[in-house]
Design brief:
Order of helices and strands: HHEHHHEEHHHHHHH
Number of strands: 3
Number of helices: 12
Low-confidence stretches: 267-276
Helix content: 55-70%
Radius of gyration: 19 Å
Shape: globular
Length: 276
């Protein structure tokens, strides 16, 4: 446990460095997109939009309800039995974000053949890896009660993202119960990342600071690109931009609060020893 705490403390110091956060942002935006058919770099946003319109996740459509029900069941279990559920919740978050990162950012597109958005996969993969690490470390205290009161104010945003009320053809608003249970949000990174980050905010400040900080920063980086795409480059899909506001708000808040946490000490067995 001591070694893990020391590693967490070192990573806490490292992730407070501006140069590392800039490097993560560049990792997502500057790593070349793999495309079977060459394309003009000025058309990158078009390529990205085509990938996100034809992702590999569509092949899992019959299983979409499962990817909605599992996180709901784990969230309920975490609320009722946090000590027993926290490890499984963290494991699922890691696996889900990793699977989502790969499948949502890979596609056999009509115009460019096979395309892989390598940068996006690396961004989601970094958060997924930290959640899997958290499942072993268990440095976030999900047993803390009562929950941070401001977390309740953010809950409608989480529900909006998880619901993902979009008509498949027109990409316009469609608030239906069927969409809540059967759409692709359970395998959509921009909708599930705020879902998982909200649980970290709910137990703030008794939370893994590295996981909170990187989740927030990756969410901000991805949100900026998506907001620019849907509000500026493709305003006809502004509703998708609205549905990325939960990611934006929750990620910004997570990033800010992560820097307000005290620096961890390498000599502690637990980052919150004696505080809960």
């Amino acid at each position: 446990m001591k070694t893990s705490s020391q590693t967490l403390a070192r990573l806490d110091r490292l992730t407070r460095r501006a140069w590392l956060l800039i490097a993560i942002a560049l990792l997502g935006s500057c790593v070349p997109v793999y495309a079977q058919q060459p394309f003009d770099p000025r058309l990158t946003s078009e390529v990205v939009f085509e990938v996100l319109s034809h992702p590999l996740t569509t092949y899992l459509r019959p299983f979409f309800p499962i990817f909605k029900l599992i996180p709901l069941a784990l969230a309920l279990w975490l609320w009722l039995k946090p000590a027993a559920a926290s490890r499984w919740f963290s494991r699922y978050a890691g696996v889900n974000l990793l699977l989502t990162g790969v499948l949502q950012n890979s596609a056999d597109t009509p115009s460019y053949g096979w395309v892989i958005l390598t940068g996006n996969i690396l961004l989601f993969g970094s958060v997924a890896g930290l959640w899997l690490w958290e499942s072993r470390l268990q440095s976030s205290y999900f047993t803390v009660r009562p929950l941070w009161h401001r977390a309740w104010a953010l809950l409608p945003l989480v529900l909006l993202a998880f619901w993902f009320p979009v008509a498949p053809g027109s990409l316009q608003p469609a608030f239906t119960i069927n969409a809540l249970l059967t759409n692709e949000a359970g395998l959509t990174g921009c909708m599930m990342l705020p879902f998982y980050t909200w649980f970290l905010l709910a137990i703030y400040p008794f939370v893994n600071p590295v996981l909170l900080r990187i989740s927030g920063w990756v969410g901000v980086v991805i949100a900026v690109f998506n907001l620019a795409t849907f509000f500026i480059l493709k305003p006809q899909y502004a509703w998708l931009g609205v549905l990325h506001l939960p990611l934006t708000v929750i990620s910004v808040l997570a990033l800010i609060l992560s820097f307000r946490l005290p620096r961890l000490q390498t000599t502690e067995e637990s980052p919150f020893a004696g505080k809960v």
